[in-house]
């Protein structure tokens, strides 16, 4: 059977997984971890009973799940294997050279964590859609807990309790996110409520 070059170079997007495959996507690793934990508990229980020690099964199970969880996290953070043939010109890390172009798994993990936390001036829509509503919820909750009112139920009293600056910020937010210093002042005013 012969394959043409067109067939080899054809690009086809993968179909999105259906519901069954998606369920199996998380179920299989969970079952694998649970089976591993059961095996670890059984071996540890037999070993400990052999030497005359008695340990609670839930404690052993928690320890086994913790070890397997840490193993899974470290596997996700491990760097990719080096390319075949070394991939480095002029030597490897052993000789003091580092391949700065390689994908760093820890750096990738930190970038994944930074993205949800990024609300800087470079992303004003993120501030307006994420941070500002949380500040408004916080103001309403503090007003409700400490004074029995909200900005919606009694706007005049809420304006009096919040102050003009905080009320103006929450009701008419600026187009650009405030600087970290201004945001600290706003949060301090919220804490005074």
Automatic annotation (TrEMBL):
Residues 7-21 have a biased composition (Basic and acidic residues). It comes from the Bacteria. The chain crosses the membrane at residues 30-47. The keyword Transmembrane helix applies. Residues 1-21 are annotated as: Disordered. Keywords: Membrane, Transmembrane, Transmembrane helix. This is Uncharacterized protein. It comes from Micromonospora siamensis. The lineage of its organism: Bacteria, Bacillati, Actinomycetota, Actinomycetes, Micromonosporales.
